[in-house]
Design brief:
alpha/beta, elongated, 8-stranded parallel barrel, 21 helices, 10 strands, 446 residues
Length: 446
Amino acid sequence: MTCVTQRHLASQGVVSPEMARVAEREHLDTGLVRTEVARGRMIIPANVNHLAQNLDPMGIGLKARVKINANIGNSPTTSALEAEVEKLLIAERWGADTVMDLSTGKRIDETRSAILAEATVPIGTVPIYQALEKVKSIEELSGDLLVDNIEHQARQGVDYMTIHAGVRLEHLPLCQHRVTGIVSRGGGILARWMVNHMLENPLYDRFDDILEICRTYDVSLSLGDGLRPGSIADASDAAQFAELDTLGELTQRAWARDVQVMIEGPGHVPMDQLEMNVRRQQKVCHEAPFYTLGPLVTDVAPGYDHITSAIGAAIVGWHGTSMLCYVTPKEHLGLPNAEDVKQGLIAYRIAAHAADLARGNRRAARWDRELSRARFAFDWRRQFELALDPETAQSMHDETLSDDYFKTAEFCSMCGPKYCPMHNFRELDWDAVRRAVAQRSRARAA
């Protein structure tokens, strides 16, 4: 079949409309975007069937700003189609660059179709979830069923798919003594199937068939970390890195077929190991974009894991991770609702912006500088406009100083007019300061 991928076009020297749009959004030269896509260091997840609807193309890679993914999706016990579409719209409103539909249980097809019809951002999935709904038990899964389901979702318009092809039968003994074993849903399903049949991972065995589907629809592969650590104690262990080595091999196989690839990264990693994890992935996977879940830098804060993970996300973003998968306050506890989606996205927009600043992004620095100038000028309305969450910023200000008069006041309710350091600084007589400094300098010289 004909290859229609952005990588194929870039390798042929073609600047596609999607590359031009990415260049416009990132303030980059179109030639640079084409070069980055051709070498595999940037991907543009853009299924041809989603492009035909309402997708606004975006880029993920080292030369682009750090991106954020939001996970949504129903479960066998909770949620409904309408609620998932609402979560999509909330995710887009609060700055998600991509959204993954991780629906399980019933109405998966209907939910995905509704999400794709509304989404202007790329949509990702984990196809094994839907395949599992078609059989009575994990043991009944087959390579044919998995590949057929991947093709079905590709036809629907899914832009990228998590494929856990790097989980090998030979890796499983490395997980035996972990504190939390295997925490990836896809990894756990495949591990149980492989042990039951004593056969290799069917996604690894059928990888060439999967690549053919990706070439036909331009589905980007998100090579899943099925053996990612689910606790600090399991971070950076032999199982995690054995899978990563396989993902490096699969990356080269995908590139040989002009399929776009990014690599998924670990979930729980202490801060002192974060830079090493990013550098190792970039080396082993030949600078393919890194896409991490968090990482969470501690295990002890259930209910606040959007914070524990945003700390790790900012650090790995600084060191070269291209996309951060958000974590909501409900991580480990339950299915997130609309407010959880917002809270997770705000935390991750802060993390991504902090990483952009650390990486020298000039647009990020201008944004900070403009807000700081508005703050120093006591231009409260401009501060609200520039805030990541304007409504929350204004509501917090107005909680104690609600009258319109206080929108021009040179203080807030924290310090008041007498103690406000910026107000006092603005009142300084700088001519007098300079004269006093000069006089002291002359006195010391004499």
